[in-house]
Amino acid sequence: MKRIPIKELIVEHPGKVLILDGGQGTELENRGININSPVWSAAPFTSESFWEPSSQERKVVEEMYRDFMIAGANILMTITYQANFQSISENTSIKTLAAYKRFLDKIVSFTREFIGEERYLIGSIGPWAAHVSCEYTGDYGPHPENIDYYGFFKPQLENFNQNRDIDLIGFETIPNFHELKAILSWDEDIISKPFYIGLSVDDNSLLRDGTTLEEISVHIKGLGNKINKNLLLMGVNCVSFNQSALILKMLHEHLPGMPLLVYPNSGEIYNPKEKTWHRPTNKLDDWETTVKKFVDNGARIIGGCCRTSPKDIAEIASAVDKYS
Ligand code: MET
Ligand SMILES: [Zn+2]
What are the binding positions for Zn(2+) in this chain? Predict the structure, then answer.
């Protein structure tokens, strides 16, 4: 059965919770794909051989999506987190906007074809931070207010706006308040289909640049009816597993009417210099308890981010079944 529009599902079916896939980048790495590249998880798509039917890498990507779907995911993401035009044009042979558009179209069609018409597809857009690797500090230099966020996002955003295979645009892991305010200032001509913003929040429940969730909610409420009508959900991603339920609860208290999404990482800590993950923390709770708290606090899309695997998604799916 073909999916109903995502906006209709979120707005008119308040009891329905969607299961998102896990962290695609780190899961590909687990499966032996080399993502140690300035374009990170988009690296496999940049080689011509990926597009040949016999490609081994292509098989690995398909197997990953297949395993997430078997685990219960009914909304999946394109592997385009670090496929912004700047990173791609500076680091690959794709140099023009026309070639870039063909590149994104190929990734999206490949993903849609593989997941089918029944499931939802998110067009993943990583933050400006992804280009300079500071998702977990939010340190955008001395003048974050002067960065041309629109110029940075525009080529990828325009592509996802017009691509009918994309149901929902996801701005992921946003760590800086200036960037967040920029995205929230764009009207329906600039973001013309449903979108969400995933905030990158630390263990003290602050945006990585130190902004409180209260300041963020005051800003959102202050936009009143000027807010882009396509903003469908707010949420957090790549926050640590142990803190995620508390962070979501706070967000829900500040923005009670807003549908939320949450997809924490495994709780390990990323070292950007070594590009490795460290110190697996002991999980305070299991997925079942955590997912119940998510559902009780307004979560409508639940999944995993970096270092979560199909096994995590299966546990999330069975908890969602039980509690939603
Ligand atoms: C650094 S957060 C990365 C999110 C992205 N969707 C991925 O897992 O590939
Ligand atoms: Zn992540």
Answer: 238, 305-306
Report the alpha-carbon distance of residue 309 to residue 266 in Å, rounded: 9
Residue whose CA is closest, atom 8 of ligand 1?
A: 23
The binding site for Zn(2+) consists of: 238, 305-306
The CATH number of the domain holding residue 135 is 3.20.20.330
* Atom of ligand 1 at shortest range from CA of 306: 8
By DSSP bridging, strand 195-199 and strand 269-271 are unpaired
Asked if the structure places residue 227 within a domain, the reply is: yes
Contacts of 150 (CB under 8 A, 6+ apart): 182, 186, 190
pLDDT in tens, 251-294: 999 999 999 999 999 988 888 778 788 876 788 899 999 999 99
Atom of ligand 1 nearest to the CA of 237: 2
* ipTM above threshold 0.95: yes
- Domain holding 181, by residue range, is 6-323
> Pocket residues for ligand 1 (CB within 6 Å)?
23-25, 41, 77, 81, 124, 135, 172-173, 238, 305-306
Alpha carbon separation from 27 to 86, 89, 191, 256 (Å, rounded): 24, 25, 29, 33
What is the domain count for the chain? 1
Q: How far is CA 172 from CA 31, 48, 67, 129, 198, in A?
A: 23, 27, 22, 10, 5
